[in-house]
Design a protein that fits this description.
By secondary structure, the chain is mainly α. It is 73% helix and 4% strand. It has one domain (2-277). It is globular.
Amino acid sequence: MKDHKNIKLWRDIIFVIGGIILFIIGSTILSLGVYTASESDYYLINIPIFLITAVVLLLLYNLLIRYVEANDACKIAPRKDISSIGNGLFIGFSYFIIVTVTMSLCGYYHIKSIQFDWEKQLFSFTLFFLVAVSEEIFFRGILFRMINRRWNIWAALVISALIFGGLHIFNDNATLWSSIAIAIEAGSLLGAAYAYSKNIWLPIGIHWIWNYTQGNILGFPVSGEDNVTSIITPEISGPQWLTGGSFGAEASVISAVIGLLISLWFIRKTIQQRHCEQ
C-alpha cells in the first residue's frame, strides 16, 4: 500500500513538473514573439512559429499523459473530441458579445471607429491560440485533473480557479478584485467546461476566442494588457466596477456575473452527466 502511494505521489510530481516545463516553453515563445513583433516584418514570421509551438505542446502533452497516466490517456488525449473546440469558440465569442452589448445598453460602451489590419489580426489570433493551449494544458489538463484525482471535482474547480485568478495579480493594472473576478468568471468557467467535456479542447476554444474577441475585436484591454490592435476602437466610460477600468472587461461585475452563470450551467450539466453514468 505504501509503495502504491509513493508511485501515485511520484506520478503527480512528474505530471506537474512536465506541465510547468510545457507552460514555460509556451510563455517563452510568446514573450519572444511579442517582443520581436515591434518590428512589422516579424508579424508574419511569428504566425507559423506560434502555430507550430502550439502543436508541439499538444503532442508533448499527449506523450506526458500517456507516460504518466497510461490507463486513462485515451480519456484526456488532445486529439479526443477535437470538435469541442468549435463549441468553445461559440461560447467564448457569445460571452463577450453579451458582456459588451450589456455595457452598451447601459451607456458605457460606444463605437468610435472601425479599422482592420489583417497582419496584426492574424498575429493576435495565432498568439491567443498559443496562450490558450499553454495555459489550458497546465491549469485544466494537468492541475485540475490531478486535484480531481486526489480529492474530488469540487476541490479541483475551486482550487484551480483560485490559482488561475491569483496568478493574474501580477498582470499590469491588476487589483485584488480583478484577480477575484478572473477566478469567478474564467477559472470557474474553464474548469467547469473541462469537467463537463472531459477534454481540453472545449476550454481551449473558450479561452482562445475569449481573449481575441475582447481585445482584437471589441477593443478592451486583455487582462490588463492594452497593446493590442482592435477592429473596433471604443469609447468606454462609466464606473470602474461595471466597465473593468484599465484592467479590461474581465474586471467588470457584468462579466463576472455572466461568466458565473455560464459556469453554473456547465456544473449543472456535469452533475446530470455523472448521475447518468452511475
